[in-house]
Amino acid sequence: MTWQRTSTQWFRLPAERLWTVLERLDRWPEWNTAVGSAAVVGSLREGATGHYSPAHPLMGPLHRRTAPAFRVTAVDPGRRLAFRQPQPGGGQDVEWTLEERAGGTDFTQKVTLDGPLAQQFGLTAGEPLVRGFAAQCARLYRLAAPAAGAPGAASDDGGEHAPLTAIAGGTGFLGTSLGSELVCDGQRVVLLTRARRPSPFEQLAWDGRTPGAWSERLGAEPRLRIVNLAGVSLDMPGTPENLAKLEASRVEPTRTLVEASRTWERPVERWLQQSAVGIYGDSYSEADESTPVPPVPGLAAVVRAWEAAFDGASAERSVVLRTSVVLAREAAILERLATVARLGGGGPLGTGMQWFSWIHEADWNRAARAALGLPTAPGEGTLDLPDGVVNATSPYPVQNRELMAHLREFVGVPLGIPAPAPLLRVAAGVLRTNPRLALDSVRAVPGVLRAARFDFRYPQLSGAFREIAA
Predict the structure, then answer these.
(1) Which of 112, 336, 444, 469 is deepest in the core (most CB within 10 A)?
(2) How confident is the model at residue 238 (pLDDT cuts 50, 70, 90)?
(3) Where is the DUF1731 domain (predicted)?
(4) Nearest 10 degrees: Cα torsion 359, 360, 366, 368
């Protein structure tokens, strides 16, 4: 049996800069927080041995006492490094490769476990190494990049006043993904956060309600971009109290940013304001950006208030990104649905006919970059997105029954028990979530992105799941 995870990130750095960090295995813990320690005995060469241990407080000591030494299996300076850690009945291979492309370097990490216990060791040993790959890469960039102002230091305009991108709500899944993408592209990034925590990004403290030092810092920037992703997860029971909490967690930070922007000497250069396709309500009809927003209660009302709070922002250019469900290996919703499918509950939910709007993480990042006036990806051009509402969603929404079929294939469970709406409501109460997230039908399509000739890497759900399963 084999367990494998492969991930790739492009860096605006030459391969030699990344290699100076990768070849020092003792620096592995500096960019991968799942690693507690690592060292090679003697010089780095094929056949050399060494030891590493997980940072986990239980697995780390156990690994140090019981695991044999790893062996370096390949060294190609500036291009490839691989080593194998023996496991009972098999082993774990870690491989890093560097390939220069589009004015930078693709860094690929592949972790493979083989043997009869590969799946079990994949969960305990492999998964921690690969989880949070985006943040790993942001840390790796900061270790490998020249200091600001030094030869080779990157900036998107070549000057000393490169724009600063401030991300509110940047500690979540999307904020970490986009922030890491921007850091690896040589962009300056800062997070607005309520609680400082270990992070690959610079952080500014704020409470999301009042002005303070964070506002003075941003207002002093000669060039500023804002990405507002602030808001607690929708994954909670749909009680009036929780709907009020969802609305406040979005409206208050948005109003605070808008009011602060009016006090700054210069308008924000680019503003990406997060929203959601749930604003179109529960409907089987196709909805693009020109579709009238219905005055319905519930989650749709939360999103209407969220967008209304953005009125009056001081920005030269702004995009309201109505985002659908974002699919990625580490997306919380995929983990929750996959767990249900593994337990046999992967049949259609409700009638199975309701529409599900989605977008792959890579395409969401590319749409976000376009909204910020950046090339959609290395080697690609910029898209001139108009100001206003943009649906960030795949051009091909699917019905729930098709989504669940892909989930069953993804987890390797061919059959799934259907969950009629009454049963789903009971299960949602036990799981402390909102059944409307699964039962509501949203059939949003990306009219603006289509008109701008946005090239979706994953337009079809089947392709998205193949990438996630890779």
Answers:
(1) 444
(2) confident
(3) 419-468
(4) 50
Same domain, yes or no: 416 and 463: yes
Q: Parallel, antiparallel, or unpaired for β 268-276 and 398-399?
A: unpaired
Q: How far apart, in whole angstroms, are the C-alpha atoms of residue 101 and residue 11?
A: 9
Torsion angle (degrees, nearest 10) of CA 370, 374, 376, 378: 180
Biggest alpha carbon distance in the chain?
69
Residue from 452, 238, 265, 456 nearest 358 by CA: 456
pLDDT at 11 over 60: yes
pLDDT band at 197 (very low <50, low <70, confident <90, very high): confident
CATH number reported for the structural domain that contains residue 304 in this entry: 3.40.50.720
Residues in the chain: 470
d(CA 138, CA 199) in angstroms, rounded, equals 9
* CB-count burial class (<10 Å; 0-12, 13-18, 19+) for 464: buried
- Tell whether 195 and 319 lie within a shared domain: yes
State whether 77 and 207 are in the same domain. no
The secondary structure element, H or E, covering residue 326 is: strand 325-327
pLDDT tens string 93-113 = 999 999 999 899 999 999 999
CATH code for the domain of 39:
3.30.530.20
Helices first, then strands: H and E counts in the chain: 17, 20
Same domain for 140 and 168: no
Token pair in block for residue 6:
């492969």
137-165 tens-digit pLDDT: 999 999 999 875 444 455 444 445 689 99
pLDDT at residue 452 in the model:
96
Mean pLDDT of 164-192: 96
- Number of structural domains (the chain) is 2
Sheet with 164-168, side-by-side order of all strands: 202-205, 188-193, 164-168, 224-228, 268-276, 315-323, 388-392
**Could you report the per-residue pLDDT of 379-390, keeping only the tens digit for each?**
888 998 999 999
Residue 286 is part of which domain span? 164-469
Instruction: Give dist(CA 36, CA 352) in Å, integer.
Output: 46
Tell me, yes or no, whether 314 and 424 share the same domain. yes
| Residue where the block lists tokens 């399509």 | 445
